[in-house]
Structures are given as C-alpha cells and as structure tokens.
Specification:
- By secondary structure, this protein is α+β, with helices and mostly antiparallel strands.
- It folds into two domains: 36-57 and 107-179, no CATH class; 66-101 and 182-244, no CATH class.
- The protein has five helices and twelve strands.
- It has helices at 2-32, 43-65, 102-131, 182-198, 204-210, and strands spanning 74-77, 80-87, 96-97, 135-139, 142-147, 151-157, 160-164, 168-171, 176-179, 214-221, 225-232, 238-244.
- Strands 1, 2, 3, 10, 11 and 12 form a six-stranded mixed β-sheet that branches. A three-stranded antiparallel β-sheet has the order 4-7-8, covered by helices on one side. The protein has a three-stranded antiparallel β-sheet with strand order 5-6-9.
Length: 251
C-alpha cells in the first residue's frame, strides 16, 4: 500500500515539474526571441544582427539543395531533394545545363527570402526606437545582392529611418557584407557541369589538387545519375547537386 502511495506521490511531483517547466518556457520565450541588443546610436548593427541568422539558414538550404530553395527537377538522395544542374532523360546524350546563370539564380533565391525578413527587421528597429520614446519615420527601399569573390554583398538603397527625441537623426547607411566562399564554389560547379556535358564524368582528384581547400565526392546512383558533393575543408560548407549525362544505353 505504501509503495502505491509512493508511486502516486512521485507521479504528482513529476506532473508539477512538467507544468512549471512549461510555464517558465512560455513566460521567458518572448525575452529569448528578442535578445538582439538595441543601440539607438547604431541602428546598422541591429539590422546586421537581425538578418544574420536568416542569411545563414537560407544559404545552407541553397547549398544542400543544389542551388534552389525548392528544387523542381531533383533526385532523392539520403532523404534530401538534390537539384539537377545538368540533365538529360535520354541515353548516350550529353546533359543540358539547367541553370546556365547559376550565380544570378542564387542571388534571386536569396532575395526572395531576405527582402521580407529585412523589412521585418526594419519594422522591429522602428518599434525599438518608439519604445524608448522616439518618434520615427521609416522608409523601406530596395535590396541588391551580389556574390563577390570573397563575400556576399547585400546592398540596401533608399532604406532610411529618421528618429526624433530631443534631436533628430537620420540613418541611411545599412549595407551588409558577409564573408563567403560561394563564388569559388560556383566556379568549381560550373567547371564540373562543363565536363559533364563534354564526357559525362570528371576526375575528382584533379579538382581536389587544383582546389586544395575543397573535398569533392562523386556518387553514382541508379538510373545513371551522379551526385556531386563539394565540401569546404575549413568551413564545412557543403554544396551538392545532381547530373545525368552520357548514360550508356542498357541495350
């Protein structure tokens, strides 16, 4: 009888702990999601911090999917949708480049996500000023994204916030630049696609000797598709894509 009472007491204690934990998570979640430090004299730093995670998350998805946020021509590999960057459904034929302007395409993919998040960040910025007693006048402008040799530049034009308390200050310099190896990755990927079109195969060791900071894997799967996985040894960034080219006829 004592054992049963002890078990009931134990279950009650566990239940109380679960309820209290849920309440604490609910109470502190708003504080956790708003931990970006706000400095009224440096709104640019706020925007940088606000957008940083979304840029990283979006780039990671583009890398793993092979250049697309949502691949529409893909093969499943390790439970992931891998985008075909070069493809033919015929035998003994070269593949066709599916994204001949891959760099521009990825810039557009980034824009489709980052622009909305950026505008939300500016709304949050204005709200932070207003909570501190400022009057604000916010103007949202345009975003231009450029993949450059060692970075990705997010060029903000015509974004401006005017804040007034005792004095009036105007802030309109918000360009964002993140260090990135994407330009080099795309150069390697484009070279691989050219080789796929010519002969349907590449020498992975040649590329790894030429680009010593990268590891290149080539995996053949059923149906004549090749999965290429290009990994930066220093950062761990992994770009993967699919190709189907010069597949020998089964007859």
């Amino acid at each position: 009888m004592k054992n049963k009472r002890g078990q009931v007491t134990l279950f009650i204690i566990i239940g109380i702990i679960i309820v209290v934990s849920a309440l604490l998570i609910f109470m502190f979640k708003p504080k956790i999601t708003s931990t970006i430090k706000f400095n009224s004299e440096n709104p640019s730093a706020y925007i940088d911090t606000c957008i940083e995670d979304k840029i990283t998350e979006t780039l990671s998805q583009i890398y793993l999917n092979g250049g697309n946020l949502e691949p529409n021509s893909f093969v499943m590999y390790d439970s992931e949708k891998i985008n075909y960057l070069c493809y033919t459904n015929e035998y003994n034929q070269p593949c066709v480049n599916q994204q001949p302007l891959l760099k521009s395409h990825i810039e557009n993919e980034l824009y489709s996500v980052i622009k909305f998040t950026l505008d939300d960040c500016f709304d949050e910025l204005a709200n932070n000023y207003e909570k501190k007693g400022y009057a604000t006048n916010l103007r949202k402008g345009n975003l231009d994204i450029k993949i450059q040799t060692e970075n990705i530049l997010f060029n903000l034009t015509n974004y401006e916030i005017i804040v007034t308390k005792q004095d009036t200050n105007t802030y309109n310099s918000f360009d964002i630049s993140i260090k990135s190896n994407l330009y080099t990755i795309l150069s390697i990927v484009n070279n691989i696609i050219e080789e796929e079109i010519k002969i349907g195969d590449i020498n992975t060791m040649f590329y790894m000797n030429l680009f010593r900071n990268f590891n290149l894997e080539k995996n053949q799967i059923n149906g004549g598709t090749t999965i290429y996985v290009l990994t930066d040894k220093k950062t761990g960034d992994k770009f993967q894509f699919a190709s189907r080219s010069h597949v020998l006829s089964p007859n």
